């Protein structure tokens, strides 16, 4: 009987230990995810500022367009890097991940439009049309600013 009780206690202790380790791992994954997501949001906001400055310059010549292309290509890589992140099974983090994923669904086509326009010898759209199209994808970036607070709180 004592042997069975000892085995039972060992099994219970093992289960509790594994559960605690799993919870600690989830929190650690959550902190790593929050850092990655915060970094991504900051890159999107910087990119939005860069696009705004590009548009405000009012220059739409080929040289100016080509000089902006590396920023767009880097942003595409940043989107792909974010999309490779796996959010932990923490509801608040999963909600934030969904908000960013929803943003990306609008943002990625804008990046594609931007790439096509910047690469064209003679763009098929005017600067005003370009501004309107790219703004549609970036307008929702301001919603991401509201996500930064909870992410930073999670990191603390």
Question: What does the model show?
Answer:
This protein has helices spanning 2-57, 62-83, 91-119, 127-139, 141-155. The chain has 156 residues and is mostly helical. Helix 1 (2-57) runs antiparallel to helix 4 (127-139) and helix 2 packs antiparallel against helix 3.
Question: Briefly, what is this?
Answer:
It contains five helices and no strands.
Question: How are the secondary structure elements laid out?
Answer:
Elements: H1 2-57, H2 62-83, H3 91-119, H4 127-139, H5 141-155
Helix pairs in contact: 1-2, 1-4, 1-5, 2-3, 3-4, 3-5
List keywords for this structure.
156 residues, elongated
- What's the tally of helices? 5
**Model regions low in confidence, pLDDT < 50 over at least 5 residues:** 5-10, 17-21
Cα gyration radius (Å): 23 Å
Q: Assign a percent range to the helix content.
A: over 70%
| Biggest beta sheet summary | none
Q: Summarize the helix and strand pattern as letters.
A: HHHHH
What's the average pLDDT? Answer: 75
């Amino acid at each position: 009987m004592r042997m069975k009780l000892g085995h039972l206690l060992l099994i219970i202790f093992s289960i509790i230990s594994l559960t605690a380790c799993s919870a600690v791992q989830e929190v650690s994954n959550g902190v790593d995810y929050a850092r990655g997501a915060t970094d991504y949001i900051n890159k999107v906001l910087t990119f939005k500022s860069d696009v705004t400055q590009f548009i405000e310059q009012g220059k739409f010549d080929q040289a100016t367009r080509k000089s902006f292309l590396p920023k767009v290509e880097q942003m595409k890589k940043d989107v792909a890097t974010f999309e490779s992140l796996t959010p932990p099974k923490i509801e608040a983090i999963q909600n934030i991940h969904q908000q960013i994923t929803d943003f990306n669904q609008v943002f990625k086509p804008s990046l594609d439009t931007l790439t096509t326009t910047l690469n064209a010898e003679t763009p098929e759209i005017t600067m005003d049309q370009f501004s309107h199209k790219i703004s549609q994808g970036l307008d929702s970036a301001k919603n991401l600013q509201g996500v930064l607070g909870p992410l930073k709180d999670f990191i603390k």
